[in-house]
Design goal:
Helices cover 84% and strands 0% of the residues. The chain contains five helices and no strands. The longest helix is centred in the middle third of the chain and has 27 residues.
Length: 124
């Protein structure tokens, strides 16, 4: 499981850099026209933070395997897909109802951090 989370973290981290650069250059006019530059950047920022968190989870699983670390990793992945994904689509399409789904991703992030806390708390 540690390898999966390390690879997912590396992939999501690299994608956050690529998506951020693409947004800053190729999509700049579209994002500015729709007034969604900040929304797009928020998606990139949270994706990157949680890519790093996934790498940390992968490393921790090697040191202190615990089911809560696995739950944390999956929560971070789900949160990234839902939170950042809806922000990307919203900022490019203007489909505002996606904003109602975004908090579900934020909730998954919070749940992931709680599981990470519990894993460390219960570590031997």
């Amino acid at each position: 499981m540690h390898k999966f989370f390390l690879m997912a973290g590396a992939l999501l981290g690299g994608l956050s850099v690529a998506i951020g650069a693409f947004g800053a250059h190729a999509l700049k006019k579209v994002l500015e026209q729709n007034n969604y530059t900040e929304v797009f950047e928020t998606g990139v920022r949270y994706q990157f933070f949680h890519a790093v968190a996934l790498c940390i989870v992968g490393i921790l699983i090697l040191q202190m395997p615990h089911k809560y670390l696995t739950y944390a990793g999956y929560s971070f992945i789900i949160g990234t897909v839902i939170f950042s994904g809806t922000l990307y689509v919203l900022s490019l399409t203007g489909i505002r109802w996606l904003g109602a789904i975004t908090p579900l991703g934020g909730t998954a992030f919070i749940v992931g951090w709680i599981f990470l806390f519990l894993a460390v708390w219960n570590a031997k």
